[in-house]
From TrEMBL:
The keyword Transport does not apply. GO terms for molecular function: heme binding; iron ion binding; monooxygenase activity; oxidoreductase activity, acting on paired donors, with incorporation or reduction of molecular oxygen. The chain crosses the membrane at residues 15-35, 272-294. It comes from the Eukaryota. It comes from Fusarium sarcochroum. InterPro entries: Cyt_P450 (IPR001128), Cyt_P450_sf (IPR036396). This is Uncharacterized protein.
Length: 403
């Protein structure tokens, strides 16, 4: 009996030591990213009083007000603040904004992933592999590559319309979300997903946790929180799925006209192919879906513009119809890329106007290079590893009090 009690006491002591060890590791993981705040970069714009403190979380909930308030207090309208472990620079002015939008060292995807609490680190993808991937995506936007996939875009869109049925009532966010996700895979992902509507719906559900983020995740990026574990599981499932498609194509010799095939032909490694596809979908599909959904909502509330667009579409189809019994989809299949770009000026105007309203907010980029990036002609710099944010929709002609 004494031996048993002694053993239980020893086990309890070991368990307590284990718990203390785990707690110590978690505390270190939580605090380690914040150590960088001890020595802020010297070349960056100054920290304003109160903006180096725990007030910074308001940037996550009221970004426009936060940035406007900070710039009003700064002599040159540029200032620095900490957002968790991330050093952030708020830029303002035409010269600073021009540098911000044109500098090759500032990466929007890296900034997006940091600001939304992602644990994917794309900073290391600035080598030749990354440049090759970017060349692939540039090729995806070229006329010849887009022409190869026009029929897919028409078929997918027609299937979406047919699935609405005669009732004609839709959830614009869900309907346009599925369609835009599918079309994005056609152009920057893989046809293996886009070819199956069931797989489109299934994988889109996997992406939803990837777009989740919390302030806690951003401020303590190393802690294994439940939301991070869900995202890790989502990334893993997408990786296994895409790698299965890559392996099948290599074994069978099957060739598709998609971005994944282009990356395979460029000898890009399998993990980078997966990361590039996931990143392209994350960066493009969500904002595009929201804009498309809002466009339908705005048109539903403006019957005059709805009628104008219907007339424009009817005229375009009528001008290209060769036989009376041709459906609209039949005619659209014959449209060239030039036709798509020139036949619908009002529709393009409506989309631009929708984006002007729905995209107002904050854009973010990260300096993934190893050199300081100048903030226009202000004399300040964006150091390596720092984020830079700037307000959009700030044209004085439309906004009398721009940031």
């Amino acid at each position: 009996m004494a031996i048993i009690l002694t053993s239980l006491t020893a086990i309890q002591g070991q368990a307590n030591n284990l718990l203390v060890g785990i707690a110590t590791v978690l505390i270190f993981m939580a605090a380690r990213p914040l150590f960088y705040r001890v020595s802020p970069p010297g070349s960056a714009p100054q920290f304003l009083k109160g903006y180096k403190s725990w007030k910074a979380p308001t940037f996550g909930s009221s970004r426009a007000e936060y940035l406007k308030s900070g710039k009003e207090k700064s002599p040159d309208r540029q200032f620095s603040f900490w957002y968790g472990p991330n050093h952030v620079i708020a830029i303002s002015g035409d010269e600073a904004r021009t540098t911000y939008l044109t500098s090759r060292g500032l990466d929007s995807l890296a900034g997006f992933l940091v600001l939304f609490g992602s644990f994917l680190n794309v900073d290391g993808l600035t080598n030749s592999v990354s440049r090759t991937a970017m060349l692939v995506y540039k090729k995806c936007t070229q006329d010849d590559q887009m022409t190869l996939n026009l029929h897919h875009l028409v078929n997918d869109s027609d299937e979406c319309v047919q699935n609405i049925g005669s009732w004609g009532v839709i959830d614009p966010v869900e309907t346009m979300g599925i369609l835009i996700y599918r079309l994005t895979h056609r152009m920057t992902g893989t046809h293996d997903i886009a070819n199956s509507l069931d797989l489109v719906i299934k994988t889109r559900e996997v992406y939803k946790p990837l777009d989740e983020s919390s302030l806690f995740d951003i401020w303590f990026p190393l802690l294994p929180t439940p939301s991070k574990l869900r995202r890790l599981w989502g990334y893993s499932k997408l990786h296994w799925l895409i790698q299965g498609f890559v392996s099948e194509r290599r074994k069978s010799g099957r060739v598709e006209q998609d971005a994944m095939q282009l990356m395979m032909e460029q000898k890009i490694s399998d993990p980078i192919i997966t990361l590039a596809i996931i990143g392209a979908i994350l960066a493009g599909v969500f904002n595009t879906s929201i804009n498309a959904a809002w466009n339908l909502c705005y048109l539903a509330q403006n019957p005059i513009w709805m009628d104008k667009l219907r007339v424009e579409v009817d005229i375009a189809i009528q001008n290209h119809r060769l036989q009376l019994d041709e459906t609209g989809a039949d005619v659209l299949h014959r449209f060239t890329l030039h036709d798509w770009e020139t036949e619908f000026p009002l529709l393009e105007l409506a989309m631009r106007e929708t984006m002007r309203f729905t995209m107002s907010g904050t854009i973010v980029r990260k300096n993934i290079g190893n050199k300081d990036v100048p903030v226009g002609d202000t004399g300040s710099f964006i150091p390596p590893g720092s984020l830079a944010v700037g307000g959009i929709f700030q044209v004085p002609a439309f906004n009398s009090s721009p940031c």
